[in-house]
Amino acid sequence: LEAETFQPIPMEEFFSPPATQYVLPILGEVPPGEPPDPKKCSPREYLEFYLFPVVLPGLAALLQEAEKEKCFEGKRTKFIPSDFLTEWLYNNNPKKKDESFTELFSIPFVKDWLKDHPRPPIPLSLLLSEEEASTLIQSFWRGYRVRCDSEVQELRQWQRKLRDERNITEVVKKFWAKQEAK
Length: 182
Hints:
By secondary structure, the protein is mainly α. The protein has nine helices and no strands. Pfam families: IQ.
C-alpha cells in the first residue's frame, strides 16, 4: 500500500503542454477545416475560429509595445495597455481591411465614452524623461539655493518693502483706469 501511495508524480505531464499550444496564430488565420456557424457552434469552436485569430496577435503586439515602452523595467509608466489594445484591435479588424489607420481618440465609441467619462491628466512625472525631470529638479534646487543667499534675501526684502511703500497694486489700478478712460 505504501509503495503505491508514495510514488513520485511525473510533474512533466502537468506542466509540459504540447508545443502547438504556444504557437500564436497569424492575424486572420483560422484553424483548418470548415468554419462553424457562429450562432450554433460551441464556445470552444467560436473562440478558436473567430476570437483567437484576432485577439492573440493583438496580445503579442501589446507585449512587444510594452517592452518597447520599457514597462517591465519600472513600476510606473505612461503606457496604457487597454488603450493600445483597443486601437490595435480597431485598426486590425478583419472586416475593416481597406480603412486607414485611426488614432485611439478618433474612434467613434471611444469619443462617446470619453464625453461621459473624462480622463484625469497624466501626471507630469510620467510624461517627462529622466533627463527632463533631472533638469527641472536641478533648476528648482539651484533657484532655492540662490534665494537662500543673504544678499539675495536682502534684495528681496528691499523689493517687498518698496512694493508696500509705493502701494504698487493701487498704482497699477490707477494706470489701467487712465488707459481705459482714454
